[in-house]
Design brief:
The protein is an alpha/beta fold and about 450 residues long. Helix content is about 35%, strand content about 15%. It is built from ten helices and twelve strands. An eight-stranded parallel beta barrel has the order 3-4-5-6-7-8-9-12, surrounded by six helices. A two-stranded antiparallel sheet has the order 1-2. Helix 8 links the parallel strand 8 and strand 9. Helix 2 packs across helix 3, helix 4 packs parallel to helix 5 and helix 8 packs parallel to helix 9. The longest helix has about 35 residues. It is globular and about 75 Å long.
Length: about 450
Amino acid sequence: MERTSGTRRTRETGEPGEPGETGETGEPGRRQTSGPETGRAGEADGSGGGRDTEGVERPAGPQGDAGTAGSGGTRDPGGNGDVGGTGDAGGSEGSGGGAVPEGRRPSRRLRRVRRGVLAVVLAVLLPLVAAETALRVAYAGDPAEGTYTRNRDAIWLGHAWVDGRKDDADLAAFARRVRETGIRDLYVHTGPLEHDGTLPKALYPRARWLVEGVHRTLPGVRVQAFLGDVLATESPDGMRLERPATRAAVVRSARQVLDVGYDGVHLDLEPLHSGDRHYLGLLDALRRVTRPRGAQLSVAAHQIDPLPGFHSFWGTVTGHPKWWSQEFFGQVARRVDQIAVMSYDTMQPLQSTYGGYVAQQTALALEVTPPTTDLLMGLPFFHENRFGHWAHAETVPAAVRGVRLGLSRTDADRARFGVALYVDFAATEADWRAYREGWVR
């Protein structure tokens, strides 16, 4: 839901919503996610930390110029002898002899500029072509047998489920759709959080109805409160995790939603920079609240550096570091029960390179996620065309195949693994079919 926000705004109502940078209020992933960007994952409604898309709330060659000193002059086509030879400083007037004409100097400089530009272009393009080729190679091959759902999948839901816009008929239809799938957790957009960490109760008047209804119609499925916000890491406005009072307020907000009956807390704060120690401290504090209650603590996570240290390079160039280091990803994964990667909004231009990228991300995440933590890879159940996301490339079939390839090559038998669908209100029948046929079987 990387969407920029830590609070993905939902497309239905323009609320926060990227991990990952949109749609409903505050959902990851595209979120705003990365949700689950964002990254945006926000929207997991919205596109953000918590994006909610419904309703509330990414060699110069040798020179060879004629007429230079020592060149011996040029031959007159008419047979009149050497004209303009630089060895004859006093050539006849009008014959072109002597110094190099002024008009040639700018062209020589222009050639140097062109060669310099070409060198820069090649320096940029060659590594890019190599990287894209590597991703296409990563998309090749066949996934291992048995790399299908472990019945630990999740889906991000929009704010309409808790603000009164959904009713019993909607819940019954949703239950029919997911009953025979691997979905076990619902990340329901309940925020967005205020920048000071508080959560107005007026935002979720129908939360208890939803939790009780899901428990009744979908036994075994858990309902987690999706809380997100935009962080003030790349702009003056947003939540500031460096403030102890803000972190304490987020913890109180978590207690608040658990008191309503939620089975867990799903956090999506974006853009969250790699190495943020205040975020790690917040997770430790939240775990002290959720664990005694037997509740889940889950997060929407940014993507992992495709190359070591790439987030630092990208942050220097663009001001938006986007990725996390693999080390930081592991530090987060060890502090939560579930970590959902906002594996969309990847800037990939083709299905093959996108699928290869997802395979790479799956492998990188598996390498550092402890076996006691559920790892979920995000699937793009939304369709947009903008910088960072092309709907023709980031498809559910490509993502599912990439997930299976990464799982096959790294830890094919891992039990605590799944996919997370982002997001319910933007999904098409084709998305649901691809998920069922490619992953559920």
